[in-house]
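Reviewers asked in the last cycle whether our approach scales beyond single polypeptides. To address this, we selected a multi-component target totalling 860 residues and predicted its structure end to end. The input consisted of the following lines:
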Amino acid sequence: MKGSKRIIAVLLALAMVFGLAACGPSGNTANNNAAPVQNNTNNTPAAPQPVYGGVLRMHCPSTATALCNLIKSVGHGFIAGCVEALGKRDFVTQEISPWLADSWTFDDKTNTVTVKLHQGVKFHDGSDFNAEVVKWCNDLAKKNNRLSTAHNFETEVVDNYTVKIIFDQFYLDWEQCALTSVNYYSKEAYDKNGEEWFLSNPVGTGAFKFVEYIPNQKVVYTKNENYWRKDANGNQLPYLDGYEAVIITDQNAAMTAFVNGEIDHLVGTDEAVIQQLITNGYTNKCYVLPDSTTTFEVYANTVIKENNPWADVNVRKAVFLYGIDWEDLTVLAGGKSAICTHSISLENTLMYDPTFNDAYKYDLEKAKKMLADAGYPNGFDSQLMTTAISKPCATVLQEKLKALGINVTIEQVGGGDAKRYDPSIPGIEMWATTTNWDVTLRPLGSMHSPLDLGGSKTQGPVVKVDFSQAYRDLYAKTAAAKTLEERAEWGKKALRQLYIEDVNSTLCYVKANAQFYGDNVHEAEFEFNWSSPEVAWKDK
Amino acid sequence: MAKYLLKRIGTMIIVIIIVSLATFFLTNLVPGDIVYTVAGSDEIDDAMYDRIYHELNLDKSTIERYLIWVRNALKGDFGMSYAYSKPVWELIKARIPTTLYISIMSIVLSVPIGVVFGMITAVFRKKWPDTVFTMIANVLNCLPQFWIAILLMYIFCLKLKWLPSMGFGFPAKVGWPKFIQTSIMPIICGSLNAIAGFTRQTRTSMLEVIRQDYIRTARAKGISERKVYFKHMMKNGLIPIITVLGGRLAHILGGSMIIENIFSIPGMGVLARTSVEGKDIPTLQAIVLITTLVSCAAYILTDIAYVVVDPRISLSESGD
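The resulting structure, written as C-alpha cells, was:
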C-alpha cells in the first residue's frame, strides 16, 4: 500500500513536470500555437467607411526620455498626432503637401522660402499658431541641433501669418528642410511652465491632446475636439477617441500583447518574433523606404598607409567584392527579414541602380588569388571594431574572413566611444545607422554627409577613410546638383566610385523593423517618422 | 542591543560608502563620451559640447565630482537624469511604490504557502505528500523567472484571455478590476521561486525540531497532534524562515527587474535597465545606493526579528 502511494506520488509529480513543459513554447509547434492564425492582409471589404470611437494603441519598442523634439531626440511614435509640421511628406512619393502652411514659394536667387501659414489654428492650450511661434520653434530646434538636416537657415517673421526661411546657400531639398524638419509646439506653454515641464508635456496643434506620460509604460493622448482639420467628406477629424504609444521593450511580451489585442500594432525587432507572426498569418507591412531602415556597413581605415593591408585597394576588392558570401552573411546576421544589398539606394529611390549589386560576385578562389597577388597569400591579422547593434554582423563577418586567412579580433565599443573617431586606430569597423535613403536630403546617405554638408566632422568613416579625389569630385557635383535628375546622374557615379572602384566601404545588408497591425485597424499604417494617426480608425 | 545596533549601523555606513565609491568610479569607466549622451546626439558643435561638459563638472577631477555627488546625495539631491531631464529622486519616487507592491505581495503570498507546504512535507516525511510537495518545490526552484512569466502569459493571456499581458496601475488610477488583473501574473511569477525556497527551508527546520525532546515530551503528555504542530513545532521551526525572509526583503527593490521588464511594469527594475542602456549615470548611481541602503536595513531588521521571535538569541557583544 505504502509502495503504491509512493508510485502514485512520483507519477503525479512527473505529470506535473510534463504538464508544465507541454504548456511552454518549445519548438515550432508550440510557437505556432502562440499566435493564432489571423489573416489581416486585404480581406476587409472595399472602401470601408470610417467610424468614430476607439483608442489606437501603437507599440513603441523603446522608452521615451522626452516628448519634445525641439530639444531632445524623440521617436515620432510618441508624439504622432499631437504635434504637426508646416508640410506633410508622403513617404512613398516624397511629395510634400500643405499642412500648417497653406502655401509657399521659393526664390532661388536669395535661397528664400516664403511660407503662408494656415490661419485660425490653435494649440491645445488655446494659444494661436502664428509666425512668431514658427520662428521660435525653428530657432529652438536649431539651437538644440534637432533639425533633420544640417542645413543652415534663418527664420524671419514677415507678418502674423507669413514667415521667410532664408538658407545660406542653395539646397536641393530646401522644401523638406523648410517644411517638414520642425514640429510646432506652444511657445506660451514653454513661457508659462519652463523647459523641464515642456520636455515631457507636449502642447501641439494636432488631432490628439496630451494627457499623461507614464514613464516606461505609455504616453496617453485624447481626442482634440477642436482639431482644425476635416476629412475629404467634411467630417470632423480625428475619428479615434484617443491614441496611446505603448512602451513594451520585451519582444515576446509585445507579441503576446499584440496577439491578445491589447495593442493594435507591433514593431518587430526580434527576428524570431517576426518570423513567428508571419508563420501565423500576420503580414509585415513595413515599407523599406526612406528613413525607416538600418544599414549595416563595413569600412576600412585607409588613412594609415604603412603596415596596413586595408590601405591597398586590391585587398579591399578581393575581400569585399569577391571574398564574402554576403547573401549568407545577411541571413545569418540579419535573419530572413534583412535585405542583402550593397547600394544605399533601394528600388524606387532616386539613385537606384539595378546593376549595382552585379559587381559583387562571391568567388573565394578568386579572392584568395587576388590577396596573394597583393602580397598576402596567407592572409593577415587585423581588428574589427563594432558597436552592440552591429555585433551579430561583425561576428559573422569575422568567421567569413577566416576563410580568406584574415583573422580579425572583435572589439565592441560604445556608440560615442572616442576610438570610433580616432584615425590612428587601424582595422575595419562595422557601422550601423538608420540611413537616410532619401538621397535628396543628404546626397549619398548620412554616412558621407560630413564631406560637404556641414554635418559632424568627427564621424568614424569621415576621419578614417581616405576618400579618393575622383569620389570627392563626383560627390561635389552630386551635392551641387540643381535638379533631381542631375543629382541622380552624378550620385550614381559617385556611389559606384565609392563602393565599387575605391571599395572604401561596403554595405552588408539593410534591415527595417517589421510593422504588424491588427485587422480591426484602418489607415494607421504609418511610418513613425513621417505620419500621424489623425485619419486612423478602428472597427467598432 | 543598542550597542549592537549602533555597531551594525556603523557597518552599514561603511558598506554604503564602499558601494557608493565603487558605483561612482565604475560608472565613470563606462565607455563613450557622456556629453553626447546628455546632448542626445553625436552631432553637436563645440560650444554646446563645452557647455554640457562644464554643466556635468567634467572639468573637475573624479574625486571632486564624487565629493560633490555625495554632498548632494546626503541632501536627497541625486542630480538630474541624463535621459529624462528630470530630478533622479522624482523618477525613483514615482517607481518605488509599484516595485514595493509587487515585491511585498509576492512575499506575502509565498510565505504562508511555502510554510504550509514545508510543514506538510515535514509532518508527512517519507510519505507521498512529502514526495509530491518536495518535487513541486524542486521544480519551482529550477524554473527561471522569465520562463514562468512567459508560461503564465501563454496560459492566461493567449489561451484563456483572462488577463492583460502588460502594464500596471494602482486602483486610484486604473480602478480596482484592472489593478487586480494586472497584479495577478507578476505576483504569482514573483512568488513561485520564493514558495519553493520557503518550502525547503521550513521542511528542513521542522525536521530538526520534530526530533527534539520537548516535542516527544509534549506528545507523551498527551497533547493533541494539532497542538504539537502549531504550538510547539511551528514556533521554533519557523525561526530560520526569518533568514530567508530577510534575504527576500533585502532584494525588495532590485529583485523584480525581470518581472517588471517582461510585464512592462514601470518600476525600479525597468528604470535600472533603461538607465544602464541610456548611460544615465546619476539615475544608476542613485538606484544602486538606495538598493544597498534597503538591503542593509533589511539585514539589520532580520537580526532584530530574531531577538523578538526567540528571546534565547542575544545580540549582545558576547552573544553574536
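The first helix of chain A runs from residue 2 to 23. We regard this as preliminary and will revisit it once experimental data from Aim 1 are available.
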